[in-house]
Amino acid sequence: MADTKTDNKTKFIKGYTAMVLSRTLDKKIVNAQRQGRVGFYTPTMGQEALQIGAGMALEDRDLIYGYYRDVPLMISRGVPIETILNQIFGNSADISKGRQMPSHFGVKKFNFMSVPSPVASNMPLAVGAAYSIRYKKENKIVLSTFGEGSTSTPDFHASMNLAAVFNVPVVFLCENNGWAISMPVEKQTKVEIWTKAAAYGMRGIKVDGNNMLETYEVVSDAIKRARAGEGPTLIDAISYRMGPHSTSDDPSKYRSQEVTEGSENDPITVTEKLLKGMNYIDDKFIESIKAKTQKIVDDKFDECEKIPPPDPATAFQDVYKNMTWMLSEEVGGIL
Amino acid sequence: MTTMNMVQAINQALSQGMAKDTSIIMLGEDIGTDGGVFRVTDGLLSKFGPERVIDTPLVELGIIGMGIGMALNGLRPIVEIQFQDFIYTAMDQIINQMAKIRYRSGGEYTVPMILRTPYGGGIKGGLYHSQSGESYFVHTAGLTVVTPSNPYDAKGLLMGAMKTDDPIIFLEPKRLYRTIKQEVPEEEYTVPIGKANLVHEGDDLSIITYGSMVPTVLDAISKNKVNADVLDLRTLLPMDRDAIFKTVEKTGKVIIVHEAPRTLGVGAEISALIAENRIDYLQGPILRVTGPDSPFPYRMEDYYIPGEKRIMDAVSKLIKLR
Ligand SMILES: Cc1ncc(C[n+]2csc(CCOP(=O)(O)OP(=O)(O)O)c2C)c(N)n1
Questions:
Q1: CA A124/CA A166 separation, integer angstroms
Q2: Which of B60, B72, B91, B245 to mutate to test the interface with A (most CBs of A within 10 A)?
Q3: Homologous superfamily of A4-334 in CATH?
Q4: Is the pTM of this model over 0.95?
Q5: pLDDT tens, residue by residue, B168-183
């Protein structure tokens, strides 16, 4: 018991630290975008607790099929913030070689599958990957994440059904931030998201996504079941998109801000309160970690911003293993 | 050598590929117990079991999406879509996922996957069991589009596809599934992807075609004693430009024949390639004999699909018939 307690303490403090790093980075990128230093970004503010709670429940070998708002999840996995920033800048150190617009990450080393723009379209891939895991007898599971707006798509329904029919090791985590751009969840669907699971013969469960510890528990349980061959789970993690949909969006057009930074529903405030109550952290720790993190983020941001753009010739590679004659001819006329 | 039709040849390729490589796994509607609605996968379930020959629920985008996910995690899935006409519900998965993952991931992730599907008319299938939609795929960078015209090529191209590390759209001309029998080697062999095949040699003109129209063209020229080169493209993306140029240089007269509608069909691309690169060799207009720009009719399918008469009309515009 004592060991679990120390383990948990280390784990939760690490989780909290990841939250602070995510938030600091998020604000840094949003501000830089306003200054014209970054092209575009989808802020993650408000979804830190649920993503990091889920991240803590995963093993490194597990696969993530995520979406464009998963920076905290990546951070909780240990993806260096340089990797994230280089993608945002689309510079020559970016894994996708400056091809994808910001927020479309992919980091194979951390088993984070490359993100496309069409929402929910990574979901069927997650089911296929989970099938292959079982076929290959690998001890892994797949975490599939998406927003609540994405549950209206055919890809969502197809994936839920296929995952249940094939009983594969996948956990569906709906990051229910209440909004799909300007559409509130009530206009998106008539029922609560987690109740949809029943229609597919799958477990469905709702969790307070602002509570990192509860999310961790719920996701851990779903993962345990998936690993044991008990099939998929749909988790409806309720949170709030504190920022705009993207840096191109003005939410004042369609809603009033319900959760502001530092208010009692801000997941960071919630987590601080929880961990302080457990005597894991105190105000001094919080202050020092925030200051330290700010410095790291500022420094890394400046470093990554200086990295030059990719060589234009790389824009036309990786379409196939070998470049087609058409493309080499066309590129010849461009470069 | 055994005499086989295209269904048997494809079945043998699948069977041999799966026996050799356990990372090959198949999924699709009714492909297991039923052996596929065209029986192409007959017997594979009993040979390889339900984990590898997967009868799926009825959802094309889900089947293709699952195939992509399997490929990303180290397998070599072969997906069957029952009719090409039903693939359109999954176009996002094909165009935005399958075709783009290597590129968008900076080459970190690849999708070694084959998407097999019967296409084309001639089986009295009406609007939704007859379409030739190859242009949609040929227009998508990242895909490789292959279509055999005979059992030998079908087996060889498919075995080649199983060794390719990029996604392949494998279009099977369903009208030819059982109409042509041919000697096919029992052993494994590959037909190179990206290489056309000169299936008939002649000096007077060149007919460039593929898939279901190859036998139609060959019949027409043999009946009418036309001295023509007939080039079977076999791969539509990337096309074998060198083979196209070679026959154009030889005859200077070109007809392109395909079943798909004319506008922005594969023939348009071939015409443009020739016009851009070999116009000096041309001794007449490049002609296209194609399906019309309409949906595919049920009772009147023989009017839709190009036949001997329309092919010969075009031939007579370019050369004097004896
Ligand atoms: C298939 C598709 N349609 C439309 C869009 C444009 N779009 C981008 S994000 C978005 C809202 C998504 O909301 P949700 O799934 O709830 O995720 P959130 O952005 O709230 O995290 C829309 C409509 C898209 N990316 N993909």
A1: 12
A2: B72
A3: Thiamin diphosphate (ThDP)-binding fold, Pyr/PP domains (3.40.50.970)
A4: yes
A5: 999 999 999 999 999 9
